[in-house]
Amino acid sequence: MAEKMKFDSLMRDITSGALADKQDELMSRMEEVLEEEEMGTMDEMINDIRDYLTSKNKLDPYLNEAGVMQIPLEMVFSWFSAAINKRKKASQD
Fold first, then answer.
1. DSSP the chain
2. Which label site among 28, 29, 69, 80 has the fewest CB atoms less than 10 Å from its CB?
3. Does the pLDDT of residue 2 top 60, yes or no?
């Protein structure tokens, strides 16, 4: 129950704008939800995104001149929320 409350609390804060311009706090809270849901770490999720983009030959636009991956926070959050919602749906079935 606490896991769902932590995710729901994060979603409420995002919707209300409480986390606007607070990227560090958002990332920290996303990491907490992943850990409590036993879905790994933020680094593992970023690696999953990289692997997915690589498999679809779509990684190049997200690499800077030095070859470092620069994923927009919106994409990371979208991946995160989709993974959490998929897990919730699977646990209800």
1. -HHHHHHHHHHHHHHHTTTTT-HHHHHHHHHHHHHHTT---HHHHHHHHHHHHHHTT--GGGB-TTS-B---HHHHHHHHHHHHHHHHHHHH-
2. 28
3. no
Question: Residue 78 is encoded by which pair of tokens?
Answer: 């979208």
What the block records as the tokens of 8 is 């729901």
Q: How confident is the model at residue 91 (pLDDT cuts 50, 70, 90)?
A: confident
User: How distant, in Å, are the alpha carbons of 6, 43, 54, 83, 84 from that of 90?
Assistant: 18, 23, 27, 11, 10
Confidence of residue 92 (pLDDT cuts 50, 70, 90): confident
Contacts of 33 (CB under 8 A, 6+ apart): 3, 6, 7, 10, 80, 84
Q: In this model, does residue 56 exceed pLDDT 90?
A: yes
Contact 41, 35 (CB under 8 A): yes
